[in-house]
Amino acid sequence: MSKSKLPIAVGIVGLGRAGWGMQCKELEKRKKTFRIAAGCDPIAKRRRQMVDTYGAKAYKTIEELVADPEIELVSIATPSTEHVDHALLALAAGKKVIVEKPLAISYDEARRLVKGAGKNKANLFVRHNRRFEGAFNDILDIVKSGLIGDLFEIKLRRLGYARRDDWQTLMSRGGGQLLNWGPHIVDHALHFLESPVKQIWTDLRKIAAMGDAEDHVRIILRGENGRVADLEISGGCAIRQPVYWLAGTRGALTSNDEQTIELRYLDPKVKLPPRRLKTGVPEYGSFGTRETLPWVTETREVRKDLNIESIWDELYETIRNGKPFRVTLEESLEVMRVLSQARKGTAFENIG
Predict the structure, then answer these.
(1) Predicted model pTM
(2) I need a labelling partner for 137 at 20 to 30 A (CA). Which of 178, 229, 253, 314 fits?
(3) Is-contact 171 352, C-beta < 8 A?
(4) Do the Cβ atoms of 55 and 29 come closer than 8 Å?
(5) H or E element in which residue 84 lies
(6) Residue 66 host element (H or E)
């Protein structure tokens, strides 16, 4: 049978929260397009799980896995500090590689990976799976349609409260919310900005986590086009805010649950009556001439045909049929540049 008709044989490096808990569960739903062929982990129990559950080969080291000629795609799901070296090993072995976010722990490390990939960088992909969220894509389509006018402010929030105590709270392991949720939310913000970033303001704090890494992140980005993106990621906020809140010159939208989108806007097809500025002294209690605007309010259900697991479907189309992958290396590098800039000059600068 032609290779183009066979499922892609995947080797997963790192059988922890991302590799085993997320990727294996997603790939086992896609047996026609992907096959879990091997796993790699230094913990023997995890290797046995891979063999018992999927009948796959299990390796103790990445060097053994990438030497397996059967493996076509290597997924790097190891701790963040190891992403670059592991991806370079797999690329040097001639494999296609998808790297869990973050691509690296810094912009310099990300550039080292891309430079080291050389002619093989076309085989390098980044698992920005939140780019495939139904809510994000629907909201992006609404913005581009002009329904709420010219976008001027974006607020993105991922809030909660957790006294987290795992490696994701340790700077030495590349932990902290900036590299955990940060790649997702910054990637979204850059697409809404539709402009190079001109200014970055940040506030990083440790609130509730047990380790030494930041668990509360506030970033404000201003694009060259004047748009402002206000981002907040926190493990120290006990009350949540809308995940998405965007304002344009003719309306706004919000989404609390990512299942529905609430809109209030002035229909672009409806021409508003002319209105003139009055420079005289206003009457007592007056705040200008009263006006009743023809607001449209609606609730839209988020599309169901696209979700964070859809990244695998598009990756298959890219590998087997040459379809462009929507997450480019240039975009992933810009995400890392913003994240590194956000850390600069803070108490959390020396990561890894």
Answers:
(1) 0.95
(2) 178
(3) yes
(4) no
(5) helix 83-92
(6) helix 62-66
Beta carbons within 10 angstroms of residue 167's beta carbon:
17
Alpha carbons 327 and 133: distance in angstroms, whole number: 13
What tens digit of pLDDT does each residue of 55-69 get?
A: 999 999 999 999 999
Domains of the chain: 3-127 (3.40.50.720), 133-306+336-343 (3.30.360.10)
What are the structure tokens assigned to 343, written together?
């850390």
Percent with pLDDT over 70 in the chain: 99
Closest CA relative to residue 211, chosen from 237, 182, 235, 175: 175
Three-state DSSP at 207 gives coil
Residues linked to residue 300 through DSSP beta bridges, in sequence order:
261
Structure tokens at 239: 């009350």
Start-to-end CA span in the chain (Å):
46
Half-sphere exposure of 152 (CA within 13 A, CB side): 6
Q: How far is CA 9 from CA 99, 170, 309, 315, 343, in A?
A: 16, 33, 18, 13, 38
Alpha carbon distance 96, 89 (integer Å)? 11
Q: How far apart are CA 304 and CA 307, in angstroms?
A: 7
Cite the DSSP H helix spans in 170-286: 177-180, 182-193
> What does the pLDDT look like over 189-215, one tens digit per residue?
999 999 999 999 999 999 999 999 999
Any idea of the CA torsion for 77, 80, 81, 83, to the nearest 10 degrees? 40
Whether cis (ω within 30° of 0) applies to the bond prior to 79 is no
